[in-house]
Specification:
Order of helices and strands: EHEHEEHEHEEHHEHEHHEHEHEEHH
Distance between the termini: 27 Å
Number of helices: 13
Largest sheet: 7 strands, parallel
Number of domains: 2
Structural class: alpha/beta
Strand content: 5-15%
CATH topology of the largest domain: Rossmann fold
CATH superfamily of the largest domain: Glycogen Phosphorylase B
Number of strands: 13
Helix content: 25-40%
Radius of gyration: 23 Å
CATH architecture of the largest domain: 3-Layer(aba) Sandwich
CATH class of the largest domain: Alpha Beta
Shape: globular
Length: 394
């Protein structure tokens, strides 16, 4: 996936830099409502029996910066849209997760906030909040940081919901608690914020469901000279979080060798930071086998990756954002877990298989192995994954 910035004007759904286009969005919304017939003409008087559409509750979500977390947040969006009254959802998101909102049917608009992981930018957050004043009745803050709650507070949104986090009691007025001794699934945590604090979650919680774009599939396949003549195995050997989530490249190469030998082809997925490990996987194969491997790391946008993954017959991935994308596209996936836990962030799909050694030292949730051996991944054989793969079929 490339790190390119999405077109802020695409389909009228994405706003540019904080403050650059918020006002134009308000104008566009008025035009859209008028063209849809939702407002009477100035000289028309409404009769008592006229069917006046109920004004939607407008909710602002402060979204996560991690791809997997934003996908899991879709369960919250689904529950909000399922409420008996109309709801309109806008989501504040950074560059890393903003494009995902284009593929979520529940989201009205994504609001781009130009901030990287860990950046404070208090002034910019306050400025964005001020520009959003008067637009929303409710806000839900998904990250636990203090800075994440600044925008809704500055926007003077009446109800501001979120979990107790970094000393932000004065920024939120509907604070929820999470028992860290027995943490629920992350998707359940997010989904619970759609409900009043004393109301139980629905059972089951809805699963994320991303949309692919058939037109873009054709274009991106042509651009990257990809053919669907052989069954496609997608491999995602990277993990932005850290090496303690990355199954060794040599193991992925064994899986690729098996699939190609059985008549299939392999597509390697990842962002710019995954180019090295994807290159290692391809480099461990014979020259003949490499002809059937497309290394797409760093060569696609996030939306391109979504569309290409949707065309895979099978996926093998670490616990990463690409794994959650595959699950939300209902692509059959085998997921390798190391330092993280499927009890917290599992693939939300009935088409997924989980592989883990469940060592006494795991899950540790560390970026690097604190014991320096990484046994949870190094000792997990490729055969354990291969046996879960079907035979490729053309």
């Amino acid at each position: 996936m490339s790190d390119e910035q999405p077109d802020p004007g695409d389909k009228g759904r994405l706003i540019g830099k904080a403050g650059d286009a918020v006002d134009s969005v308000a104008e566009d919304s008025v035009v859209a409502r008028e063209s849809a017939g939702q407002q009477p003409e100035p000289d028309k008087q409404l009769e008592p029996d006229d069917d006046v559409p109920e004004e939607p509750e407008r909710i602002l979500i402060v979204g996560p910066a991690w791809v997997g977390d934003m996908i899991m947040a879709q369960a919250l969006f689904m529950l909000l849209k399922a409420q008996p009254h109309p709801v309109e959802i806008d989501v504040v998101a950074p560059r890393s997760t903003l494009p995902l909102l284009e593929r979520m049917a529940e989201v009205n608009r994504g609001i781009f906030f130009d901030v990287e992981h860990g950046e404070l930018k208090i002034g910019a957050r306050v400025d964005l909040g001020k520009r959003l004043r008067g637009r929303y009745q409710r806000a839900i803050v998904l990250p636990n940081s203090l800075k994440s709650a600044i925008v809704p507070f500055a926007a003077q949104i009446e109800q501001r919901t979120g979990f107790r986090g970094e000393f932000r009691f004065f920024l939120l007025n509907d604070i929820r608690l999470c028992d860290k001794r027995r943490p629920p699934l992350m998707v359940d945590q997010f989904a619970s914020l759609a409900q009043p604090a004393d109301k139980p979650l629905p059972d089951p919680v809805p699963r994320p469901l991303l949309r692919a774009d058939p037109k873009n599939i054709t274009e991106v396949c042509s651009r990257n000279r990809l053919s669907l003549g052989r069954a496609v195995l997608g491999l995602a050997p990277g993990a932005e979080y850290g090496e303690a989530k990355r199954w060794p490249a040599a193991k992925y190469a064994e899986v690729a060798e098996h699939w190609i030998g059985a008549g299939g082809q392999v597509w390697l997925f990842g962002g710019p930071g995954d180019q090295r490990v994807c290159g290692e996987v391809r480099g461990k194969l014979s020259t003949e086998r490499r002809l059937l491997v497309a290394d797409l790391a760093g060569k696609t946008s996030l939306l391109d990756a979504i569309d290409l993954i949707s065309m895979c017959d099978q996926m093998v991935s670490n616990d990463s954002g690409l794994m959650h994308i595959a699950a939300a596209l209902q692509v059959p996936t085998v997921v390798v877990y190391g330092s993280s836990s499927p009890a917290f962030t599992p693939p939300l799909s009935s088409n997924a298989e989980i592989v883990t050694l469940s060592l006494p030292c795991s899950p540790c949730f560390k970026r690097t192995c604190p014991l320096k051996h990484l046994d949870c991944l190094n000792k997990l054989p490729a055969a354990q994954v291969i046996e879960l793969l079907p035979a490729p079929s053309a």
